[in-house]
Design a protein that fits this description.
This protein is mainly α and 68 residues long. It has one domain. The protein has three helices and no strands. The protein is globular and about 25 Å long.
Length: 68
């Protein structure tokens, strides 16, 4: 994902416009790119929460999506 696309996703996330599985995908990209550690602490904490909940692995790969 290009940086401009990821930035757009972050803005949509901040505005509450993303569906849950889009949030999982966005955090996957943030972890894979290493960008998650350069953002506000809440992004890192949310990424760890998604990992501990079994949605992402520690490399950022998606393991599960929320059933809708």
């Amino acid at each position: 994902m290009k940086l401009t696309e990821l930035t757009s996703k972050i803005v949509s996330y901040e505005l509450g416009e993303l569906e849950v599985n889009e949030v999982i995908d966005m955090f996957s990209e943030l972890v894979k790119s290493g960008m998650v550690m350069r953002l506000q602490g809440c992004y890192g904490r949310t990424a760890v929460h998604l990992m501990e909940a079994g949605y992402l692995d520690w490399d950022g790969e998606v393991l599960n999506y929320l059933e809708q």
